[in-house]
Amino acid sequence: MDLTLLVEEVGRHLAAGNRHPAHACSAMRRLVRSSALTAHVRSALGSSKEIRRMSEKSQVHPNAFDKVTLFQTSLGVKLVLHRWLAADDAADDSIHNHRWDFCSAVLGGMLLCEEYVERPDGTVRAYAHEYRSPGDTAEYSLTSLGGSRVALVGRITHGVGAVYHQAHDVLHRARVSSSGALTLIVQGPVLADSTAVHSSSLRPAAHRVLRREPGEVAHALTDLLHTLPVPPGS
Fold it and tell me: What's the CATH code of the domain at 64?
């Protein structure tokens, strides 16, 4: 099966919202183990044009990871590499949700994932903001919505080999081990226009999108290639 079909299979299950998370995770495991994915990464590493394109669309995320889009289908489903930096107390660890459901495969390191709900008796005091995607622009915006209170309702650790599903409307945050982490995600179709961000401080309205240099993107793809499972029959 080629990469487009594998990514679209995950996306199809994610488009159903939270109704079929097990099917989405099974499809994600097939994608991660596929020879098509390995071939795509190798091909990208051999093309300076493709590395440059990925660099121009990359993002240094405020939640302490680099985000590199490896592939996007005509339906808008994205295959994205997250290269998490080493744990840093100064990093932004805002509680947030997304515009799309996603499946994540942990290829290196470890993630501590927490889920929250907003409610009046929540023990975590925060500042609520509305976030809208920057797309390909140089800035993204956050609209202040005032004070908020959220409560921790779940916590789970995902190690190497784990594959998990995250619903778009669930507030959450992820933290990494001291050595960082490497994860591969499939973003499903967009299901909401904006997202909620609950941070420990009031955030500026406009933020500049930072990109990674081509050499840094190539380094991240090399790390990915070394951590992908060996495809069956290789």
Answer: 2.60.120.10
Instruction: State how many domains the chain has.
Output: 1
Q: What is the pTM of this model?
A: 0.92
In a domain, 233, yes or no: no
Task: Give CA–CA dist 118/184, Å, rounded.
Answer: 28
d(CA 102, CA 96): 14
Q: What is the pLDDT of residues 105-118, one digit of tens each?
A: 999 999 999 999 99
Closest CA to 227 of 104, 103, 107, 105: 107
Residue 16 lies in a domain: yes
**pLDDT tens by residue, 121-178:** 999 999 999 998 777 677 777 899 999 999 999 999 999 999 999 999 999 999 887 7
- Residue 54's nearest CA partner among 220, 183, 232, 230 is 220
